[in-house]
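Here is one chain, start to finish.
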Amino acid sequence: MKKVLVTGAAGFIGFHLCKSLVTNGEKVVGIDNLNDYYDVTLKTDRLKQLEAEENFKFIKADLAEKDKIAELFAEENFDMAVNLAAQAGVRYSLINPHAYINSNINGFLNILEGCRHNKVKHLVFASSSSVYGANTKMPFSVHHNVDHPVSLYAATKKANELMAHTYSSLYNIPCTGLRFFTVYGPWGRPDMALFLFTKAILEGNHIDVFNYGRMQRDFTYIDDVIKGVVRIMNKVPQSNPEWSSDNPDSATSYSPYKLYNIGSNNPVELMKFIEVLEDCLGRKAKKNLLPIQPGDVPATFADVDDLMRDVGFKPSTSIEDGIKRFVDWYKVYYKIN
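Its structure:
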């Protein structure tokens, strides 16, 4: 039995990961600050499910609380750490930029320091497909240069990758970064399109459709994401003996460091996504067609060759199955006939 720290345990991905780990017999300590970026009730309801599990312990804490995080690492003696806590959302970073520095930069530094001083055997951390920024070469590969972010959120995630590499290089900490591509499914985030659209359509309200519906996203179902994360947790990165400073590969290193895309490898146009949702709800959406917003990118498309090669996994849930499962959960959770 391993002892695993999961930050952001009351969040969407964190909740599902904790549930999977305790089901598989791991001992999990989850931390979360339960902030009000979105409905705290959803977070506490996720937590209630986790706290019913014998192998789960919850600690309310903010990653930016340096001393508290240091104490937690020293007391618990984790085998692994999975950092999923972050101030999320591209559009919110235009409104409250300081929240992103406090959580995603200062908070992540405290996690790195905890791993450094307590000999954590593997740090897995959430990055984002947003790091691809202004890139247009598709599919997005972890071996591509990602030096042109178009949102502060993306810049903080790119910074996390650089910070993790620094600690891997200096202190030989095995670090794996995961670039998630538009994760959706039951217990999802209310600030994301599927949740917003479902609520609005059921209430008879208009939905905002940016880039006039021509946006493409590599929507990735939550169960697929968790399977990928668990497999990667069990594959501790090694140094790449073929890494060359003359032609540096950003996805690997001379130190124990690796990056992976976690995406479906199957981009879907936003209008198609809405049509599938309309079919599942049995209702038509009223659409406000709008231009693309600052910080958004027109398309995402994940190259998952490295994921398939290294851990033998590729997400496979269709958009039709995934959206249906979300709608079924939504109706039960919100008691909608």
